[in-house]
Design brief:
The chain is mainly α. It contains twelve helices and no strands. It has one domain.
Length: 258
């Protein structure tokens, strides 16, 4: 549970972001448009031409958009838990400065998770509005899909933070994105149903947090029946958030406390 002091950490992150937000405009606001234009309308035209019945009964753009919403939230969460965390520990040492105040390690970690949740929420909201602009779904359905996307993003932020705080250099982060984040983005049902994957690979896709977010977002936007009950996916993603946050506490103490 976030402490009142954790909101001071959130405030400091917001003040810093106010100075650098222009650098994230492309990834946060233009990526949804470019993705849906290129993949949904560009590639989607070819897919729809070869599959008159659609993908799972809908056009490729409608199939793709909710998956990309969840994937964008996942990537945002992973970004919040990676190089920024390492910079605060190793390069900028801003977390050392924060802990020289009444802020404790628990407050710091919870505050960082609150900020990650806010960033994911902001990016997901923008993507939802873009979906409405592309006439993928009505406004209320698009906004409802923000909920699962938020869970996916915070789950990835917590898991990535707990990994980043344990490593010594950013080479390991590059490997993490290459062998964890990118494969998850490609093979968790965002671009095609995972039933098209080899049978041995499908169970791996099922356990990724992104797949749970994709199937919930798609159920809300498209109206298809989710593969598993939504409450199971919600509990699963919540478990990732709780476990990732808890696993980050001890390494933060070891690295930041004398």
């Amino acid at each position: 549970m976030a402490t009142p002091v954790a909101f001071r950490v959130f405030e400091s992150e917001a003040l810093w972001y106010r100075r650098v937000w222009r650098g994230s405009v492309f990834s946060s606001f233009l990526n949804p448009v470019l993705y849906l234009l290129a993949m949904g309308l560009g590639l989607g035209t070819l897919v729809d031409a070869n599959l008159p019945e659609g993908v799972e009964g809908v056009s490729y753009l409608t199939f793709l958009a909710p998956g990309l919403l969840a994937a964008t939230a996942m990537q945002t969460g992973a970004g919040e838990g990676s190089w920024k965390i390492m910079a605060g520990i190793k390069w900028r040492k801003s977390y050392h400065a924060k802990l020289a105040t009444p802020i404790g390690v628990r407050d710091l970690v919870f505050g960082l998770m609150l900020w990650a949740a806010f960033r994911v929420l902001l990016v997901s909201f923008v993507f939802a509005i873009v979906m409405v602009a592309f006439r993928v779904s009505p406004l209320w359905q698009s906004l409802l899909a923000i909920g699962p996307a938020l869970l996916v993003g915070v789950a990835m932020a917590a898991a990535t933070t707990s990994y980043t705080v344990r490593i010594k250099n950013d080479v390991n982060l590059a490997m993490y994105f290459r062998f964890v984040v990118i494969p998850m983005f490609l093979f968790s049902g965002v671009f095609f149903p995972i039933t098209q994957l080899p049978e041995w690979l499908q169970p791996i896709a099922f356990i990724t947090p992104l797949w749970h977010g994709v199937q919930m977002c798609r159920a809300l936007v498209v109206g298809v029946e989710p593969v598993i009950a939504p409450w199971i996916s919600i509990a699963y993603l919540t478990g990732w958030i709780v476990a990732g946050t808890a696993l980050a506490l001890a390494p933060f103490r070891r690295r930041l406390k004398p």
